[in-house]
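Hello,

Our lab assistant flagged a job as stuck in the queue for most of the afternoon. It eventually completed. Since we weren't sure the result was trustworthy after the delay, we are filing this so someone can double-check. Below is the sequence as submitted and the structure that was eventually returned. Let us know if re-running is recommended.
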Amino acid sequence: QEKSCHLSAALLGEDSEISQEQLYELLKYAALGKCHKAAQPSWCRIYHQSHLAGVVVVVLHEMSQLHFYRFYLQFKHLRKVFRHRFTLAPSANFPVSLYGEGANLKPQNTPQGLSSTSSECITKSSDLQCDPIIRRYGEKKQGLTSYTLTLKEQKENDYPIEGSPGCQGYISTECDQQRTDSSPLFGLDCEMCLTAKGNEVTRVSLVDARGQCLLNELVKPESTVLNYRTRFSGITKKMLLPVKTRLSDIQTRLKKMLPHDAVLVGHSLNSDLQALEMIHPSVIDTSLLFARNEGRRFKLKFLAKAVLGKEIQCEQKLGHDPTEDARAALELAQFFIEQGPIKVAELNLEMLLTAEKLAEVSQNKSALQPQGCEFQEQLNESPPLSKPCFLDCLQVTGQKPLLLGRQGLDSSGLCQSNLSTSNKQILQRALEDVPLSKFSIIQFSLGPEYLASHLHAGLYEKVRSKLTDLLTIYAGPFEENFCVKSVKKEFGRCGPIQSLTVVTETFQPYVCIQYEVLEAAQLAVESLNGAEVAGSCIKVQRPVTATMLDCNVLIKELELDVENEGVIYVAGLKKSLTETDLQEEFSQLKDLETLFLPKDLQSGKHRNCCFLKFQKTQSAVDALEAINGWTMKGSELRSRNALAPGHLWRWIWQMNHSNGKQGKHIFYEKMEQLSNSEQDLRKKVKKLDHHIKKLYRSLQSNTLCVVLFPGVNSTRGSHSGLGLMGIKDGEGRSAC
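-- returned structure --
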């Protein structure tokens, strides 16, 4: 039976802004796979990439995130089909950032150096026989039990073992060795400091098979600390001062958390278990799993980058993040088990490591060498060592990319310019040709008359105005000398307040409150309208403006948005609660997948609300019922269905904190022109959505489809783009 591809992306929260380079990562991996040295993207994961039927990229020329939310109701198909959505950082040269430097789609031209690169991508089978990974594990793909360390291997690599010298007093996890290939994997990593006793644990992290953090705890050492090793551990004396958790507490918690057949995964995991003074029988050590000759080991940082395409242990950060390291080790083991030894050997990690070291040496020499010297001249004369564009690689592997567009994608021959071609004609060509191509880029456009850059300023102001109205509520009437503080406290239980002003132009005073999140404003309308606040029975309503006449329709559609499925909003949290506290408090909720705690993007302080994402929609419904009225640390919680995806929350925050003057001088001059054409523009957007719907329905199952609003980055201003993506399943929906 054909395996079903699916896509996983943790895009809830501030991290939902994706750079052009990260988008390129996704398309390169989807198009080429690991056998051509394309690594899994760092921000999402494609499962069973080799079973992808094809990749289709739909580019909506010169359109931005503004267009999607200005015409949200018109984009009926897009918002109902694609489960993953992200803000796309705008680029000054979108085609180059999308296809990669040096892109050349002319079939008659073979890029320089491509033949050698292609030959490097395909490792000869005779060479693979000498690879230490193949010598150790063979060529056949096996289950996880084949990669757990034997008792002999544990002894040879200094793992704590029951009854061994030096392990007296060590605590056993009491897990048995009855593991199977379906046993659960857990990533573990610790940070240590040097004490009078030796290495002692100062921080412990445990993640489950989905990468969800189960434990991230600071630990106070028993002995006097001689060296905090802050550069590596990130731990300081100040951090440990208030900590009361001891090693024995962590040992007890780990024993309770790990099931009887748990398999622990880590990088040089023996050091972590020794510091924890714990014995566990079933382990996968990624420093040994990715075998090298002569007993050498790859560093975790290198493996994460070379295999997963992830940057960890960045120099900008103070110390290592144990949760990040635990997750990286876990994903490396999952990759090895899923792909098998042959695929791992084909990555040619030794060659990649050598190339990386040579690049570092070259950079250091270049930095030290004076300008104009012989070495610098040789570098200038040498051809660039940049990797070829992945579309060129596609052609070499016999896959011809399909490019259809209304306008030239750029001036370097990426797509022939054909200004007379309509969206309808492009759609007809796409319906005929896309099924015959493994990789297709289809470009639609609203037409030059609707894409003038001055119209973006008008769109920005309209969207900003509408969002402000949605975030704003009026409440009252109140008594003359009412307590503003108690009103703010009551309405603050619905979510973070951006501003509160008293309206005195009325016979009795009212308050105007602008919230930071849409859910808070809606919760205030739903829960406080008709309630008694500050001694008065009040009415709570949104502003009555022309743009708000369809407010109820918009709120309903936002609730039904496929990206908000299984996501709920919770308000009334005390700011003293940490993310770890909340994880523990909400751990009793069934099928909880992710917790997102919004933060002020300037101060870094978290707000008094959070979003909870559940694996199943019914679990979210049950959680709503359970949480409403729930008291946490003396504070009563309020909750409702989510309205705004994570990327939109970030955008709203930026709009709230902008000065509101972006493009205003242009806006007032051009608004009349925009208003006159808006009805026509709505019709065109609706038709464009219908074209994409028709194209999407024609795609084969297991096709990755990415729809891009590229954004605008010009001298007149910058507007973020938007990406929507999903893998089509057998029923025409986008698979998670």
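-- support follow-up --
The delay was a queue issue, not a problem with the job. The result is valid. Residues 565-642 form a domain with the Alpha-Beta Plaits fold (CATH 3.30.70.330). The chain has 27 helices and 32 strands.
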